[in-house]
Design a protein that fits this description.
With 368 residues, this protein is of the alpha/beta class. It folds into two domains: 11-142, Rossmann fold; 149-357, NAD(P)-binding Rossmann-like Domain (Rossmann fold, 3-Layer(aba) Sandwich). The chain has helices at residues 48-65, 85-98, 117-127, 149-164, 181-192, 215-225, 282-290, 298-301, 304-313, 318-343, 347-360, and strands at 11-17, 22-30, 36-37, 40-43, 70-77, 107-108, 173-177, 196-202, 205-208, 235-237, 249-252, 271-274, 294-296. Strands 10-9-8-7-11-12-13 form a seven-stranded mixed β-sheet, with helices on both faces. α2 crosses α3, α4 (149-164) crosses α5 (181-192) and α4 runs parallel beside α10. The chain is globular.
Length: 368
């Protein structure tokens, strides 16, 4: 069910194409700051409710990032593990054509779960407008998310959080939920900075080693075997146990609603960096905050992807993009954590308030 409030959503579309079996959604939440910007995910369970929640998160994320985009999100219902690449391309192309009336004037797409550089190329070509999405191949003027922009932002957000706690990355242990684009690059950046990645998960389970995992070996095993659980050393655990690993930092980098009410007391990490979108409810965030766990909210930590999208939309290169990601993420994380401590609030409360202030300054349709 899609919930409407004073900020949006402004538009909700559900589109079909029976011939190719395409069924998808787009929720354009708020366009006060510019066209709605948000990725297109492809999963067998994606729903209007999920897309709507993510679209609102994008409204706050883009506002907090200080870029000229509103918030939106899209989803295509399909299991890409059960279809060929040709069939997947047909679904993406059909979806892009169905959104022509609103894209790119009101909605700009981008990569998300199971949707990467190739799919953005298919989407842009089918839509007929190169500005219809970001994350395209470099040959199309794109800055592919495969460059690691989202994880780069998460990494710098984590460093700010650690400094806030009086720690440094060289002396920490990290557990990473998910080993897709964000998790892969996060493990790389942490390792290169001297931190110790002690656990990583994917859909098949967790690989845990208290002395640390070798990133190059981990990446090779994932590529060759399809799962980190084939690492060969350490302990293999059920996937959900990633949340209860004894570590300094837990990075969420895959699924929404990872942490539920029953999980709050299982978490040992003192810093959670939300590289994934909506990994827990705000109620559970508040409970963890009260227990002394510092949480850097999703739309603060993982805004590197949308900052990269903005850089692509104005024709900048990857050097400009990485510099912009670091500067904006560091500044925003510092502002949120400093103000949260001063006001005695959870970081998300403060981050949402800052984002609302920026949206309301330009919003002509908000009832506030």
């Amino acid at each position: 069910m899609v919930e409407f409030d004073d900020y949006g959503p402004e538009k909700v579309f559900e589109v079909y194409n029976a011939k190719v079996g395409m069924h998808g959604f787009v929720v354009i939440d708020n366009t006060a700051l510019g066209p709605g910007k948000g990725g297109i995910r492809m999963t067998p369970t994606v729903s209007r409710t999920e897309v709507s929640r993510l679209a609102r998160a994008m409204t706050w994320k883009n506002a907090l990032a200080g870029i000229p985009f509103g918030g939106a999100k899209a989803g295509i219902i399909a299991d890409d593990r059960q279809i060929t690449q040709k069939e997947k391309d047909e679904l993406v192309a059909s979806f892009a054509k169905a959104l022509k009336p609103v894209c790119p004037e009101f909605y700009v797409g981008g990569p998300d779960m199971n949707m990467a550089e190739h799919e953005m190329e298919v989407y842009a070509n089918a839509n007929g407008n190169n500005m219809s999405c970001t994350g395209k191949p470099a040959s199309m003027g794109g800055l592919p998310h495969e460059l690691g922009s989202t994880a780069f932002g998460c990494f710098h957000s984590m460093k700010v959080g650690l400094k806030h706690q009086g720690k440094s990355v060289e002396r920490i242990t990290v557990a990473i939920e998910g080993f897709g684009n964000v998790g892969w690059f996060m493990a790389k950046f942490v390792t290169e900075a001297g931190g110790k990645v002690v656990a990583v998960s994917d859909s098949r389970g967790v690989i845990y080693h208290k002395d640390g995992l070798d990133f190059e070996k981990l990446a090779s095993v994932k590529k060759d075997e399809g799962t980190v659980t084939k690492y060969g050393e350490g302990e293999v655990l059920p996937a959900h146990e990633i949340i209860s690993i004894d570590c300094d930092v837990l990075v969420t980098a895959a699924i929404p609603d990872l942490i539920g009410p029953k999980d709050v007391d299982k978490i040992k990490a003192k810093l959670i960096v939300q590289g994934s979108n909506i990994p827990m409810s705000f109620e559970d965030e508040k409970r963890l905050h009260e227990k002394g766990v510092l949480i850097i909210p999703d739309f603060v930590a993982n805004a590197g992807g949308v900052i990269s999208s903005w850089a692509e939309s104005i024709g900048k290169d990857k050097k400009f993009m990485f510099k912009a990601v670091e500067e904006k993420i560091v500044k925003n994380t510092q502002e949120v954590l400093t103000r949260a401590e001063k006001e005695g609030k959870a970081p998300r409360e403060v981050a949402v308030q800052i984002a609302k202030e920026r949206v309301l300054g330009k919003c002509k349709t908000c009832r506030v």
